[in-house]
Design goal:
about 375 residues; mainly beta; Immunoglobulin-like; 6-stranded mixed beta sheet; 19 strands; globular
Length: about 375
């Protein structure tokens, strides 16, 4: 019943403020996405109240309508919990805390940025505002599908002090379809070449660039590489994984890492209609945090493309041109080897350094000839 309620059409029919969007580009299949539109008269604010989900990370971004330009973000660790409650995303915090409520005031006219529980958008005082919220929940815990909490309540705070609820009939995030599928968006042309080894580029999207309308998450960093499976049966990616907390199996405390979460996804290009993703916990690592990821259409999967043999496998959508996206969620400010420091369209290899997923085309026979070596201390961390 709950899962049926949470389909995109049913959410709209129930009058829920939040929608499960089906038109987002470059979605990550281990992420729950919620979007809601709102309109504020001059002097009004928005109040968002919720419970921190059971997941690796939560991100809330505010966008302008209709441009979708990103105006502000509220990183989960910066959102203060209600008095007597716990923010489970702070390093060292109890992730299983029962009291985990938060509230955030969104003020279009306040100075841009997060100050306590107020997120300012830096807009013009006395002006009406048309906005869009996009909430992302990354890698929900296995025991808590979708993050396992009610969808946040949203109210318009009128100038007379009254709170007007927006929407009703919203179920738990546990009822959302998973994974949510990519939309039919056609991606803009991107710089780069179909090269062997892969040509990784930065995809920073500051306001005003041609990709700014793609509902960018300001708290993330991305690099992409164009692929062409006409050049070989598959791609072998080798590199070093950044450190990240391990949470999917319900770790009691939040850990630290060079990034909060990382993943790599394969998309059809230039359309992103089909996608598959590997979450960081899906990738076996050897000593030194080295990884080997095989990317190929499902029918070309080698027999040894399995974690027990030290390989993660990422199915590519189709045998033609495609795109790989490396996603770093909330990279630590002191971590330099992240696409956050690569200009849009620029070569990412120098910045990524040992963390670059160096990709070379190989035949299926070449990979199968590597066999399945005995356990060498690999782990998924």
């Amino acid at each position: 019943m709950m899962a049926a309620l949470a389909t995109a059409a049913a959410l709209a029919a129930a009058g829920c403020f939040w929608q499960a969007p089906i038109d987002l580009p470059l979605v990550e299949t281990h992420v729950v996405y919620l979007r809601g539109d709102f309109d504020l008269a001059p002097g009004e604010r928005l109040l968002v109240e919720g419970r921190f989900p059971h997941a690796r990370q939560m991100g809330l971004n505010v966008h302008a309508r209709p441009s979708n330009a990103t105006l502000a973000s509220a990183p989960d660790v910066a959102i203060p919990p209600r008095p007597g409650h716990v923010n489970p995303f702070v390093p060292g915090a109890r992730r299983d805390a029962a009291r985990r409520e938060w509230a955030l005031h969104i003020d279009p006219a306040a100075p841009a940025g997060l100050a306590g529980a107020r997120l300012g958008l830096g807009g013009e005082a006395g002006a009406a505002f048309a906005g869009r919220l996009l909430l992302r929940i990354y890698l929900p815990d296995a025991a808590h599908p979708g993050g396992g909490v009610p969808m946040p309540r949203v109210s318009r705070l009128r100038t007379d002090g009254a709170a007007e609820p927006l929407g009703h009939g919203c179920p738990s995030t546990a009822g959302l379809p998973a994974p949510q599928q990519p939309g039919p968006t056609r991606l803009p042309e991107a710089p780069g070449t179909f090269a062997d080894p892969l040509d990784w580029r930065g995809s920073a999207t500051p306001p005003g660039t041609r990709l700014a309308e793609l509902l960018v998450n300001r708290d993330n960093a991305y690099a992409y590489a164009l692929t062409d499976f006409g050049r070989g049966d598959l791609l072998l990616l080798e590199g070093r994984a950044p450190t990240a907390p391990r949470t999917r199996d319900g770790a009691p405390q939040m850990g630290r890492g060079e990034v909060r979460y990382w993943s790599i996804c394969a998309y059809r290009h230039p359309s992103d209609r089909t996608a598959a993703c590997l979450a960081d916990e899906d990738v076996p690592l050897s000593p030194g945090r080295r990884f080997r990821i095989l990317v190929a259409p499902a029918e070309r999967r080698p027999a040894n493309a399995q974690p027990a043999c030290g390989f993660a496998f990422l199915p590519a959508p189709g045998t033609g041109e495609g795109l790989l996206l490396l996603r770093h969620v909330a990279p630590d400010p002191g971590f330099r080897h992240t696409p956050l420091h690569v200009a849009a369209g620029a070569d990412a290899s120098a910045v990524l350094g040992p963390y670059e997923p160096v990709g070379r085309y190989r035949s299926r026979a070449e990979v199968e000839a590597l066999g399945c070596p005995a356990d060498d201390g690999r782990q998924t961390r």
